[in-house]
Amino acid sequence: MARLTTIFGGSGFIGRYLVQELAKSGSRIRIATRDPHLAAHVKPLAALGQLELVRADLRLPASVARAADGADAVVNLVGVLDDRDHGFAAIHVAGAGAVAEAARTAGARAFVHVSAIGADADSASAYGRSKGEGEAAVRAAFPGATILRPSIVFGPEDQFLNRFAGLMRLAPVMPVVAGGTRFQPVYVADVARAIAAALADPASHGGKTYALGGPEAISMRALLAWIAAETGRSPSFIEVPDGLAAALARLVGWLPGAPLTHDQWLMLQADNVVAGQADGLAAMGIEPTPMRAVAPQWLVRFRRRGRFS
């Protein structure tokens, strides 16, 4: 019988690509999500009977244990971007530890925890601290876990390239915050391949921490300029001084839907690149996909006349 892989957060952005990657190998897949009714879109990504949906909430360890029961491999993809309802501590730290503990108790042979570049228990950012503390909780519960730290993940459904392209379609002026900060955007399909590779070979990758980045490090300023050129837009870019950006983020960042929280501004003060860390894609023999090679395929919808521009 094909092995069973439980994916916590498997109905999200990265999850749908991981499902397709695992389905190709014949693995049985269990998607653990807070609301299975909202995860039906992943079922067609696997063969009939190959995938099941179960209810689990990282704040409820008993539900996590049930979702991991019987699994040969476990993946944790769950993360939040703001600290509403103390989500950083509950999801990134306690929740990650609960998933790792459930994987160990289930006797899983492989466990992959997806963290983020910038994870550091001493980070000035609450997000970065929680990610670092979560990694420590994972290591304590499941020492053989593979921890992956992607840079910004891009793909057809992302909330990064698409978000900026959408803003440029609406606004003639584009504020640039932390324009010199560099990112190393990594393609979502490459992240999925890395997770699958780590699951397939825990003897080589278990107990290790890898950073995942694409082939190009690019500044925020250059990235925005590239998106504008690719979508045929020409907004006026206005550099926002760091002091003003910090003040505005602190003043209004707590509001629902704020474009930038103070904690996110703190994260933007450091480069988000692989340099200085173990390169996961290289270690797994995965050739990183250039953003410029694939992103134009979906960014074209932001052009004034689409593919006819």
Low-confidence stretches: none
Radius of gyration: 19 Å
Largest sheet: 7 strands, parallel
The CATH architecture name of the domain at 4-153 and 186-214 and 273-286 reads 3-Layer(aba) Sandwich
Strand portion: 15-25%
| SSE sequence, one letter per element | EHEEHEHEHEEHEEEHHEEHEHHHHH
What is CATH's topology name of the domain at 4-153 and 186-214 and 273-286? Rossmann fold
CA distance, first residue to last residue:
51 Å
Envelope shape: globular
CATH homologous group name of the domain at 4-153 and 186-214 and 273-286? NAD(P)-binding Rossmann-like Domain
* CATH class membership of the domain at 4-153 and 186-214 and 273-286: Alpha Beta
Helix-strand makeup class: alpha/beta
Q: What's the tally of helices?
A: 13
Mean pLDDT: 94
Describe this structure in words.
- This protein is an alpha/beta fold and 309 residues long.
- It has a domain of 193 residues: NAD(P)-binding Rossmann-like Domain (Rossmann fold, 3-Layer(aba) Sandwich), CATH 3.40.50.720.
- The chain is 40% helix and 16% strand.
- The chain contains 13 helices and 13 strands.
- The strands form four sheets. It has a seven-stranded parallel sheet, sandwiched between helices. It has a two-stranded parallel sheet with strand order 7-10. Strands 8-13 form a two-stranded parallel sheet.
- Helix 3 links the parallel strand 4 and strand 5.
- Helix 1 crosses helix 6, helix 2 packs parallel to helix 3 and helix 3 runs parallel beside helix 4.
- It is globular, with a radius of gyration of 19 Å.
- The model has no long low-confidence stretch (mean pLDDT 94).
